[in-house]
Amino acid sequence: MARLADYFVLVAFGPHPRGSGEGQGHILQRFPEKDWEDNPFPQGIELFCQPSGWQLCPERNPPTFFVAVLTDINSERHYCACLTFWEPAEPTQEVVCAEDATEQEEEADEGGPAQLSPATPGPPGQLFAPKTLVLVSRLDHAEVFRNSLGLIYTIHVEGLNVGLENVIGNLLTCIIPLAGGSQLDSVEDGVRTISLGAGDRQVIQTPLADSLPISRCSVALLFRQLGITNVLSLFCAALTEHKVLFLSRSYQRLSDACRGLLALLFPLRYSFTYVPILPAQLLEVLSTPTPFIIGVNAAFQAETQELLDVIVADLDGGTVTVPECVHIPPLPEPLQSQTHSVLSMVLDPELELADLAFPPPSTNASSLKMQDKELRAVFLRLFAQLLQGYRWCLHMVRIHPEPVIRFHKAAFLGQRGLVEDDFLMKVLEGMAFAGFVSERGVPYRATDLFDELVAHEVARMRADENHPQRVLRHVKELAEQLYKNENPYPAVAMHKVQRPGEASHLRRVPRPFPRLDDGMVQWIVDQATAKMQGAPPAVKAERRTTVPSGPPMTAILERSGGLHGNSARRLEVVRNCISYVFEGKMLEAKKLLPAVLRALKGRAARRCLTQELHLHVQQNRAVLDHQQFDFVVRMMNCCLQDCTSLDEHGIAAALLPLVTAFCRKLSPGVTQFAYSCVQEHVVWSTPQFWEAMFYGDVQTHIRALYLEPAEDGDHVQVGELSAREDERSALDVASEQRRLWPTLSREKQQELVQKEESTVFSQAIHYANRMSYLLLPLDSSKSRLLRERAGLGDLESASNSLVTSSMAGSVAESYDTESGFEDAETCDVAGAVVRFINRFVDKVCTESGVTSDHLKGLHVMVPDIVQMHIETLEAVHRESKRLPPIQKPKLLRPRLLPDEECVLDGLRVYLLPDGREGGAGGTGGGPALLPAEGAVFLTTYRVIFTGMPTDPLVGEQVVVRSFPVAALTKEKRISVQTPVDQLLQDGLQLRSCTFQLLKMAFDEEVGSDSAELFRKQLHKLRYPPDIRGTFAFTLGSAHTPGRPPRTTKDKGPSLRTLSRNIVKNAKKTLGRQYVTRKKYNPPSWEHRGQPPPEDQEDEISVLEELEPSTLTPSSALKPSDRMTMSSLVERACCRDYQRLGLGTLSSSLSRAKSEPFRISPVNRMYAICRSYPGLLIVPQSVQDNALQRVSRCYRQNRFPVVCWRSGRSRAVLLRSGGLHGKGVVGLFKAQNAPSPGQSQADSGSLEQEKYLQAVVSSMPRYADASGRNTLSGFSSAHVGSHVPSPRARVTTLSNPMAASASRWTAPRGKLGSVRASGRSGGLGADVGSRLAGRDMLGPPQANGAPPDPGFLRPQRAALYIIGDKAQLKGVRPDPLQQWELVPIEVFEARQVKASFKKLLKACVPGCPFPEPSPVSFLRSLEDSEWLIQIHKLLQVSVLVVELLDSGSSVLVSLEDGWDITTQVVSLVQLLSDPFYRTLEGFRLLVEKEWLSFGHRFSHRGAHTLAGQGSGFTPVFLQFLDCVHQVHLQFPMEFEFSPFYLKFLGYHHASRRFRTFLLDSDYERIELGLLYEEKGERRGAQACRSVWEYMDRLSKRTPVFYNYMYAPEDTEVLRPYSNVSNLKVWDFYTEETLAEGPPYDWELAQGPPEPPEEERPDGGAPQSRRRVVWPCYDSRPRAQPDAISRLLEELQRLEAELGRPAERWKDTWDRVKAAQRLEGRPDGRGTPSSLLASSVPHHRRSLGVYLQEGPVGSTLSLSLDSDQSSGSTASSSRQAARRSTSTLYSQFQTAESENRSYEGTLYKKGAFMKPWKARWFVLDKTKHQLRYYDHRVDTECKGVIDLAEVEAVAPGTPTLGAPKTVDEKAFFDVKTTRRVYNFCAQDVPSAQQWVDQIQSCLSDA
Predict the structure, then answer these.
(1) How crowded is the C-beta side of 569, counted as CA atoms within 13 Å?
(2) Alpha helices in 1117-1193 (DSSP H)
(3) In this model, does residue 1727 exceed pLDDT 90?
(4) Torsions phi, psi for 1251 (to 5 deg)
(5) Is residue 1434 pLDDT above 90, yes or no?
(6) Residue 1414 contacts by C-beta under 8 Å, 6 or more apart in sequence?
(7) Cβ proximity of 1359 and 1256 under 8 Å
(8) 522 pLDDT above the threshold of 70
(9) Which of 388, 469, 1492, 1808 is at 20 to 30 A from 1228, Cα to Cα?
């Protein structure tokens, strides 16, 4: 029983003590005066009566009522019912507020409590003060309070003749039952009728179950105000401990909303701050850091704006605002969606019927009270589903004297399948759930609706899931029960309470509320109290029962068993493997092991493993031999490696007893247990895991304690115990014990408590031991444990949470950096473990009530336990070292090159998968070749791994992966699990720029010192101190690496010393800005701030077959020496200049003026520019002495020189470094400028201008009148994409948008930066607009546009200077000059480097992608921006090609002139000149542009120690990639094969050859490399030059030759450059694990396969078919193309016949010649027909027109350029634009496939020819109209190209036309060449033909 009301308080308005405008509440009276003992008077009631502040009002407001809730220090809630009414203010009150009455009025309007009706003002100037009646109670009977206070107010207002004191006295003495109508004996006890003595009667119904909350209508109202989604998010927010704030203008609404939200949370109780109505003075409470549910008047909304982490629910506006920083986890699916749909069915029953054609008569919606209960029922069901089976995860830690219960969170989450679920995780960790466990975990207590539901109804809810009506029925049943709980006796709910009359508050009350007689009220209260004390306590015993546990839990959402669907088979495999191990059938077990390890990824298999092992322990088979031990440990490790730190599935828990059971004998007295081999798992260092394990074990023992038969002290036999185990759970036992507890004697109780306590204590000792087993490493000198384990690294932190991995990382680093002594580390480990165990012991013992003496004893024991264990381990460690090593596979020796030597012999390692799928048996199929077990070797040239796959099912495949040491780009230490033992081992990850990655884990036998030695040696080989230390120099040590300069007499000692000085100075002044040799010495490349990279590959010219030149470096620099000149003439560049007709040396000496250019030997001593070749092409008119001055204006002195001339347009291509910055130019200007007022101040020195003028004037100046405008070809070259979609191309070709985009009238946007020259914006603007700024990334605008008339201006600059946008800022050419600047944005070398790094990571990730898919590869490829750079290069190159082709010369002047300039210039020459597309020409191109013109191979490849910091920058590789892209698009234009490019790409970084070493010819001469092989033909000695090596190789094999080579003589290539047209080079992605990279030919060719032979028994020859695996076998070798195969076959046959084998090239040339003569192959058997069929119709170029004939002739034509193309082709070739049809001829040979429309038409022949009926075919795909003799004819008689059609018009009959046909059936097709006359059979068909042709034209 309880008091209905504890206190009655009268609070009135009083002045504020500090005299401010606001008033404050004063308690006038309170009853009783004394506090009740059990319930002190709550403080701060005055604030809560008027939450908005106490203010006077200008008018009399109607009375208001609301209930505020106060929570006291013991978390008890006090309900304060407040009824407020207004009385005229007393004079003292008015004086207070008179000062600012106006302000008061405004405030009262805004902030006062809700004014229900417009109040009538009193006399003018009259103010009204609020007065509040307050009832304080611990019961929540709001209606009774409203009625009672209303009665008191009514008595006062209406002046009823009833004593107020009596009423209040009665109210305070009213006693009502707490709860449980059904549990009381009669209705009268459950329903209390009270009267307060004023002729009133009220019925109070107490709820049946005290635990269920009372909600009245609050939940339904909450949903009405906010809607389903908002309430659900508030529900989740409250459960996951977020801050929730309600806003409303009504206080009653605020109380209701808060009450409703709390009711939804049942059965969890909200335990944080709960203030449904917060007074204005306490608003700062909102910034508390703890969670809360608070309501605030909407008037104070502004004050809540700056709260950053509060979820605000506006009840009046119906919105919920969640701040950005707050994440509310949603309910787990499918519960979220199910709850949502059930709620909508309850709230809106009409929704289901809304779409029905014949809706039933409208059903009556439930009343609000009933709807409220239905909504609560939905949430009750939700909790039952969420927490289903929670009782199975309770651990009974103690039963007596009070139950101690713990909840096993991890097991609950694991078994529900919600490990990842954020919501449930947070709920289980929250305070509310902790309260739930302590309150509802008790096994013997009163039960309520929720207990019934969660125990018995879960199966029903499962079954109903998909039946909405059944769900609704269940909800209604639950709602009935909830309703009945609140209103047990609805029949007797009658109230009779007087109310004041209407508008009574407006009447003048004769007097204010009277002061009550204290004594009288107190007397009534005392009387009642005395009576109560006399009466016996009416305590009803609770009906307590055992709480039902319900069915065991199931996963919330049955996951589809797709991944481990065939788990029964898997479990069978696991069981078999274990039985083989224990039966000693090791071979069988070894075969199954990989399958078992794979199966153990599944939960079922892991559980099965633990059960099987458990059985073997029970059968006393725990002592194993070494091999068995090894197998068991491996399987355990595999199980544990997927365990999270919480061990949700109990795998680690099940293994814990096993790892302390399985052992092996190492020697007499020394046993090694399995725990010493499974420590490397994060679960062992997680305190929560150990706590859960401990509590679980304690529960088992406590249960056993009470299950023991009393008379028998010994433990029951295991069998009996397990038999009984099924019957009674620990909770049942505990429940029984709690029931009996009161009946036991005091001594018996004491005895039980003691027994339980000692059980817990003994378990604590046991666990201290267990923990030391698993936390102390076997080798305690290694503190790896501390490093690797997150949990132990930071044991000092008091939190129990697992330390984050970042912390662990920092701990690890600190350990690496300290070099403490071993002992220090040992005791460190011990100390950390002792602290960890002590903290654990403290926590569990205090929670489970162990006595403090026992706890102290434990603290003393722990260090001893740890120390003893360390001593035991030392012996084990010592003995385990002596074990004979397990038989490991024999190390396979790698094959080495002739001069390659082994530096470090094999270190045993495991090669791990690196994210590329192929090796791991990914999507490409094939076996899992990786991980492989083998050894890594370090040689002078390569790092090589050789080994075998660890998966025994793969068979005896050898896995080889290697890369050149020089290609190493990154090396990092890693810690990885070895694939076999699952042990954590140190490893190394080596990444190379040849796209190989070695991710290795060292075997445990490899000591850390060996691994360190490997790293050091590798580093030494990768970065030799000097270039002479590289493999290319050291191999074949016939020559000593560093030859001293010869001491023979020299003719020019001065020059020799000079050359020496140059080098000496260069080396000395690495850090200085300039080499100060002479006054004007150019800023050499040292001033870039990097040491001179001395280590790029040498450049060896092999082609010189002259006399052995006896040049030493010094004589090479001697000007007068003719030998020097001839040597220079022999250089690649000079031979190329002569080929291009750019002058010979003789002409330059005799100064023949006819030549516009000459070869100048001005740089033969490398004095002007050290990075240029010795001989340069300059304009004839420029003197050598002027060049010196010109060179100063350019970076690195790289002044403009000619490198190529177009044979047709005679335009020249020049290259130079970029212009110097302003400062340097200004410096030189000061010396040269005759007068300061020069107009060319911006564009460098006068000399530079003169030089450019000379370049311009030495070109043939002719204006092209033929209409070949600059970008005409460009438009057709860039068309469309390289996708064989014929449709796409046509559209692009005549795209009207593109046409409009190509009008270059004014540059737009960024393009304005292009400075057009004084001539009105000729080409400069258009070129700029193509290339400036952003447009570099977009598709070139001019693509596909027909030439714009405004674009064909005759004026065109004679020279375009392509420069860096940043550099050319402010450089404004003179209007009269003949050149024009084209600023473009280029990327820098560092961007290339960064992009390449990302490309490497994309192609060889290093670790597997989370979900390997093509998308992740493509995404990372895109992020690298590599293809974007390729696109830019190709785009600029195509632009330059266009300009050159149109007769303008181009100077490429970018960066320092040796990176991007070289790329662009080389590409331009390759695209423009077919010679460079031959094997010889490409070599010449690389030697000339890359080697002679000083691309810094050593610097960019970081070849020496000096270049280590700068890293690898693959500028040359990027150029090769561009060539590869062009090769893909024009496969018939290149004499070399794609393999040739890959070969160069590999060896330019490998340092095997000297070709690509060093940075310039000057450096190569310095080292004596350039001319040394002149006569020293060293027979079979190793090749020094890559060219020589490739020459020799290509004589033997056609591997570098492209069979499809069939060039067009005048072909200029214009490749598509859009990123969509570019392909990833397979050089980056392919690999051959059978033999390593295939670019070291001697190694890659492997042993030859034995030929097919007859079997000796005369049977059929054995089949030589074999499986070819992707990524393992070299596919070109395993499946050579047909031509290579035939050539091999020929050689084999010749060898059999004993004839000398003919060279493959001669055979090939003969075959081609024969085929040319035949003109048409016979289509059978001969190599020529094979050759023909191997040519794809893929000629993306101008000159190939496949003939419209049968297949054979088409092919034969396409093979050779000598044969004339068909008539159509030759005629259309004259047209500047290529005809569209030719674009598509590559896709189809037989025309029959694309017939868009066909039929018979009469066609008038040529002049004087008759009309003939033909079968016409309109082909929209090829854009042609073809005609045949008749319908079935395959030979096409002619083609009308629709691209040439100008109009289709009605025609007139001419002579000889068919007579019977209507005139309107004639029509003409007018093309650019002639008019075709047609006639259809009738008018409709004529109309149809015209329409079809028209539509075809408009489509295009």
Answers:
(1) 5
(2) 1122-1130, 1132-1140, 1145-1150, 1184-1191
(3) no
(4) -65, -45
(5) yes
(6) none
(7) yes
(8) yes
(9) 1492
* Edge-first strand listing for the sheet containing 902-911: 959-964, 942-949, 932-939, 902-911, 997-1002, 984-992, 968-977
pLDDT of 48 strictly over 70? yes
pLDDT band at 228 (very low <50, low <70, confident <90, very high): very high
Residues 1398 and 1098: their CA atoms lie apart, in Å, by 29
Cα–Cα nearest to 833, from 893, 782, 785, 884: 785
Residue 1731 pLDDT greater than 50, yes or no: no
The CA-atom distances, in angstroms, between 1469 and each of 1204, 1516, 1611 are 7, 15, 12
> In Å, what is the CA distance from 1499 to each residue of 1073, 1085, 1508, 1514, 1556?
18, 11, 9, 11, 11
Tokens standing for residue 1056 = 């020799």
Q: Please give the DSSP secondary-structure letter assigned to residue 1239.
A: G
What pTM value is reported for the model? 0.57
Three-state DSSP class for 1376?
coil
Q: How large is the average pLDDT for residues 489-510?
A: 71
How far apart are alpha carbons 593 and 527 in whole angstroms?
87
Residues 6+ apart with CB under 8 A from 1625: 1521, 1524
Q: What is the pLDDT of residues 1079-1117, one digit of tens each?
A: 343 434 434 333 333 343 333 333 333 333 333 333 334
Asked if the bond preceding 931 is cis, omega within 30° of 0, the reply is yes
The rounded distance, in Å, linking the Cα atoms of 921 and 649 is 30
Chain-centre distance for alpha carbon 1608: 47
Tokens of 1163: 């740089």
User: In the structure encoding, which two tokens stand for residue 992, read together?
Assistant: 């190379």
Burial environment of residue 1051 by CB neighbours within 10 A (0 to 12, 13 to 18, 19 or more): exposed
Nearest to residue 1525, comparing CAs of 1679, 1736, 1740? Answer: 1740
Q: What stretches of 708-821 show up as alpha helix (H) in DSSP? A: 718-725, 730-740, 746-775, 784-788, 790-793, 805-817
Q: Which two tokens stand for residue 1555?
A: 């070709």
The residue-averaged pLDDT of 805-816 equals: 34
Mean pLDDT of 1623-1632: 89
pLDDT tens digits, one per residue of 823-852: 444 457 888 899 999 999 999 999 888 888
Whether residue 13 contacts residue 131, with contact meaning beta carbons closer than 8 Å, is answered with: yes
Structure-token pair, residue 315: 């009840």
CA separation (Å) from 310 to 236, 242, 1198?
A: 14, 7, 66
Radius of gyration over alpha carbons of the chain, in Å? 48
* Candidate from 652-661, 707-716, 1153-1162 with smallest mean pLDDT: 707-716
SS3 1827: strand
Nearest to 211 by CA among 489, 537, 440, 536: 440
Tokens, residue 1223: 């400062």
The pLDDT assigned to 1485 comes to: 94
Measured distance CA(317)–CA(315) in Å, rounded: 6
Q: How does pLDDT run across 1472-1530, given as a tens digit for each residue?
A: 999 999 999 999 999 999 999 999 999 999 888 888 888 899 999 999 999 999 999 99
Q: Which amino acid is at 1847?
A: A
Q: Counting beta carbons within 10 angstroms of the beta carbon of residue 796, is it exposed (0 to 12), middle (13 to 18) or buried (19 or more)?
A: exposed
DSSP string, 1046-1102: P-S--S-HHHHHHHHHHHHHHHHTSSSSS--SSTT----GGGGSS-----SBP----
Percent of the chain at pLDDT above 70? 72
Instruction: Let me know: does 241 contact 271? Beta carbons within 8 Å.
Output: no
Across the range 1334-1342, mean pLDDT stands at 37
Q: Other CB atoms closer than 10 Å to residue 875's CB: what's the count?
A: 15
What sign has the CA pseudo-torsion 1491, 1496, 1500, 1505? positive
Q: Cβ(612)–Cβ(662) under 8 Å? A: no
Residue type, 1521: D
